[in-house]
Write a structure and sequence with these properties.
mainly alpha, Arc Repressor Mutant, subunit A, Tscrpt_reg_LuxR_C, 38 helices, Non-specific serine/threonine protein kinase, DNA binding, Rossmann fold, five-stranded parallel β-sheet
């Protein structure tokens, strides 16, 4: 799979820590203790106090207790409360190809899982975060949430742990005693990173103490101050800080608060920057979720910031700990801590330059999405998927800016339609529809862009099964197309209507509309639209009984996609061929095309087409006499269907054949064996399910009992897990404590090499 596909697969993911972690031993132990007794632990405190790093360190420490099932969701760059649940669902590997509320999908997915969910930076989304957490904790007894926020979430059962600054020494402490104070240890660690020879001596120990006390033990403040040791001694640094805080105290007539301490230090760091560094700091604050060199060149250079000197300026901000450098699969990206980014944004606002820089950011993002559309039909397709994955937060930021006025909304409509394939393949249908609707609501009258957004919105609604919205939105798009004479939009309206007919098993109507749309696209030179309609025309013709014609059409489309280096629609064309062959009873041919889909999915990672392919392969195995294999494949397909929030029964043509195949498998194997094989297949992770379908080595998928024997008590617990009981229900049934039940389940997972309860259930069923 592509890097992005791997990143988006559900599983344990924690951001890498790019600097060493110092101290907090007592806090780590306390948070670990609270996570054992409370369903929600919220780390609170001001910006810069170290909440995120503490949460990451604790999550890594307790990961084994959750069977490695830990999911981290960073919310700093998310500004739209309505997208919170969708963002969490995406991190869990869920899609939204149905009309079900995303929160219901998340809750159903987590209901039987023992999982630690880390929600970082909730303070600007407190109400939405509280609703999400309350819904999860109410229905998912084995899920524990660790949140960070500047304020509590106010949810029942919440344990709030204020994160205090690092411990600082009292004046007069000895050099030997310094190692007992986390603030000094952090300062020394960061100081030696910039001045390797730096040590604390009798001559400067009081200066270091003054520094740490003046900085109030705030980790971010200490890190920003330590980089100044390149040009100042500890005494000079302490003296200069003392002067600044004295001025602040005189102005406020009281000791500075921790917020003021950090703000003063950030302000001093800003003043010590060169003019170009200040410009880049402020201008880069418009990025959300980070940026790369190319983005900085496009959005930040000019008007005092020379592009030829950009690398030197970036290096300067990295040296001063204003920018953080991260490398992802050979690509370097930069980001700021949220407190530092907000300072830069305030500088832009104070200078009256915020709107201009947000527009430049929007222009860069517009160029990015335009190039995505141009390069979609090329061997670079998978690279572009990765790219938009990385820039998703920036895309949201740019689209949010476009909602501000009619003129900007038109630009936003072009952006949201240029990446229509991204919304579909990543399962972000609700988000795509949201942006379409919001932008259309602001954009002026009848335009080609309004018509395009209308049919895109209608297509996304159709995939989700929201037929009323599909009908309304497509009718509006058709009306705009007719009023302005937009032939391209007319063709896409026909295309989307054909999809609706195809899903309803009206092959004749679908074939007529797809054929008409395909010819229109060909006349206009729209190759993407032509092939998209063409292979669906082949499937529609096959449903009318003309498999020979349909087969020729679909194979031709597959060949043309292959020549172009296109992968996404090639998978769907191959699946269409597989489905047509299966429905016509040509099971060997269907099997060949379906396996070709799964081979491509190793690189691509579109779970919707994966689910369709596994479903067809299960049907083929049924009729080829491999009933156990059919049951396992159907179980694997069902798991993938559940993860994308959809069902193959949305396609009417599949309903009767699926019901027939399930009956054949159940009668052939017997209900108990069929259920056991289905459960085993349902427990397979996506990559393992593909390996199984491709008949690769499966000897290590499910360990035999002899390889990992359980004790008598562990076997009892495993059997109760297989019955769907929660940890609390197991504890009550066996008259043991909740902690003992959790320990037994942890041991079972470890011995069997499993990461979730479904795998345990499958193992029990297969014994």
């Amino acid at each position: 799979m592509t890097n992005a596909a791997v990143q988006r697969l559900p599983g344990p993911r924690l951001p890498a820590e790019i600097t060493t972690y110092v101290g907090r031993g007592t806090e780590i132990r306390e948070v670990k203790r609270l996570l054992g007794v409370a369903p929600l632990v919220t780390l609170t405190g001001p910006g810069g106090v170290g909440k995120t790093r503490l949460a990451l360190r604790v999550a890594a420490a307790v990961r084994p207790s959750f069977g490695d099932d830990v999911v981290f969701v960073g919310l700093a760059e998310l500004h739209e409360p309505k997208l919170l649940v969708n963002t969490v669902a995406d991190r869990l590997g869920l899609g939204d190809r149905s009309t079900r509320a995303p929160i219901d999908l998340v809750v159903d997915h987590l209901r039987a899982r023992r999982l630690l969910l880390v929600l970082d930076n909730c303070e600007h989304l407190v109400e939405a975060s509280a609703r999400l957490v309350e819904a999860i904790l109410t229905s998912c007894p084995d899920v524990v949430v660790l949140a960070t926020s500047r304020q509590s979430l106010g949810v029942a059962g919440e344990h709030v742990l204020p994160v205090q600054p690092l411990a600082v020494p009292e004046p007069g402490e000895s050099v030997a005693a310094m190692e007992n104070y986390d603030a000094v240890r952090l300062f020394l660690d960061r100081a030696t990173a910039v001045v390797p020879s730096f040590t604390i001596t009798e001559d400067d120990v009081e200066d270091v103490i003054r520094l740490c006390r003046a900085l109030d033990g705030l980790p971010l403040a200490i890190e920003l101050a330590a980089v100044r040791l390149r040009s100042l001694s500890a005494r000079q640094l302490a003296d200069r800080l003392n002067k600044r805080f004295t001025l602040l105290t005189q102005a406020n007539r009281s000791a500075p608060s921790r917020h003021e301490t950090l703000a003063t230090l950030i302000d001093w760091s800003h003043q010590l920057c060169t003019e170009q560094e200040r410009l880049l700091w402020a201008r880069a604050s418009v990025f959300s979720g980070g940026f790369d060199l190319e983005a900085a060149e496009a959005a930040c250079c000019g008007d005092g910031l020379d592009g030829d000197e950009l690398l030197d300026v970036l290096d300067g901000l990295i040296d001063k700990s204003i920018l953080l450098r991260e490398e992802h699969h050979g690509q370097v990206r930069f980001r700021m801590l949220e407190t530092v980014r907000q300072y830069g944004e305030e500088r832009l606002r104070a200078n009256g330059d915020l709107d201009r820089m947000r527009r430049r950011h929007r222009d860069w993002c517009t160029a990015l999405t335009s190039q995505f559309a141009v390069d979609w039909f090329s061997p670079a397709q998978l690279d572009w998927i990765d790219r938009i994955d990385f820039e998703h937060a920036n895309l949201r930021q740019a689209l949010d800016y476009c909602i501000g006025s009619e003129g900007e909304a038109l630009v936003g409509l072009r952006m949201v339609t240029d990446v229509k394939e991204y919304w579909v393949m990543r399962g972000l249908l609700t988000e795509g529809r949201m942006w379409c609707a919001r932008l259309v609501g602001v954009a002026p009258g009848d335009t080609e862009l309004r018509a395009a957004a209308g049919w895109v919105d209608a297509f996304l609604a159709l995939i989700q099964g929201d037929i009323p919205a599909y009908e309304t939105t497509l009718a509006e798009a058709a009306g705009v197309a007719e009023r302005i004479g937009d032939d391209r939009a007319r063709a896409y309206v026909d295309h989307i209507r054909a999809y609706h007919a195809l899903m309803g098993n009206d092959g004749a109507q679908a074939a007529e509309l797809f054929h008409r749309a395909s010819e229109s696209f060909q006349d206009m030179g729209d190759l993407s639209g032509e092939l998209w309609s063409r292979f669906n025309y082949g499937l529609a013709v096959s449903l009318t009984g003309d498999l020979d014609t349909g087969r020729v059409v679909m194979r031709d489309c597959v060949d043309r996609y292959t020549e172009l280096g296109e992968v996404s629609w090639r998978c769907w064309a191959l699946w269409s061929l597989s489905a047509a062959e299966y429905l016509a009873g040509e099971y060997e041919s269907a099997l060949e095309a379906g396996l070709a889909v799964l081979r491509l999915q190793r690189r691509y990672g579109d779970r919707a087409v994966m689910a369709f392919a596994l479903t067809v392969l299960a049907g083929c195995s049924t009729h080829l006499g491999e009933l156990r294999r059919a049951a396992r494949l159907l179980g694997a397909a069902t798991t993938v269907w559940n993860s994308v929030g959809a069902s193959p029964t949305n396609y009417t043509a599949f309903v009767e054949p699926m019901q027939r195949d399930i009956i054949l498998v159940t009668e052939g194997l017997g209900p108990e064996t069929a259920a056991a094989e289905f459960t085993t297949g349902a427990a397979l992770p996506n990559d393992t399910a593909i390996s199984y379908a491709l008949r690769e080595d499966m000897s290590r998928v499910v360990p035999e009992a002899a390889e990992a024997p359980l004790t008598k008590r562990e076997m009892e617990v495993a059997e109760l897990v297989a019955k769907g009981m929660t940890n609390r229900e197991i504890a009550k049934s066996l008259v043991i404590s909740l902690r003992t039940a959790e320990t037994h389940i942890d041991h079972i997972r470890t011995k069997l090499g499993f990461s979730n309860r479904t795998q345990i259930a499958a193992w029990v069923a297969g014994r």
